[in-house]
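To: structure subgroup
Subject: Chain for Friday's discussion

All,

I'm putting the inputs and outputs inline so they're searchable in the archive.
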Amino acid sequence: MVSANQHLIIHNGRGMLLDPGGHKVYSKLFSAMPEFLPPSSLDYLFLSHQDPDIVASINGWLMVTDAEAYMSAIWRRFVAHFGVDGSVMDRMKTIPDEGMRLDLNGCELLLIPAHFLHSAGNFHVYDPIAKILYSGDLGAALVDYRYVEDFDAHTEQMIGFHNRYMASSTACRLWADMVRNLDIDIIAPQHGAIFRGKAMCNQFIDWVAALEPGAEAMQEAFQLPA
């Protein structure tokens, strides 16, 4: 119902699948993966937050691979409600609020905090070799083009979603200040077009830092119904 991007990081023959998606894409994604990596070579599944378009297929992936699934510590018990079998619950691993590093067969991936953007327990992945920041729902837009070419025009496709789904300007500014310390060539959201090139990525970070979304954008809605 909502198109989504599934990202696969491969390093030295081992992989991490990011936000594997819902039930409707599971069989297609599983069938397509061997072109790039055998599912048996997956070490990690990453869940940026708890939404069904991110995690609903998690039980299938845990049952057919030996991968460990990483998610915010506050969502592990909730994600289990998507039908996770008891026999694989021990491979549902938690990420502390401050984030962590994961070794993918010699590549140290950073799982970095993105709380309240938009979930209360939210994380992004930074790949220091490819210099890609996987930004989950931050940067999402429902468009039919693959890469952002005209940033100003693209903001019109992002602003409505971000004003409603990102919680606060404080979270936006904290995130922007944090990721400016990374060497980023590409920002890849979970929905819509990819930002590529340092100039485009910096434009996006500046745009996020200036947002006043969520509670700020909806102050007029806090009224008793007429």
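Points worth raising on Friday:
Residues 7-218 form a domain with the Metallo-beta-lactamase; Chain A fold (CATH 3.60.15.10).
The two ends are 33 Å apart (CA to CA).

D.
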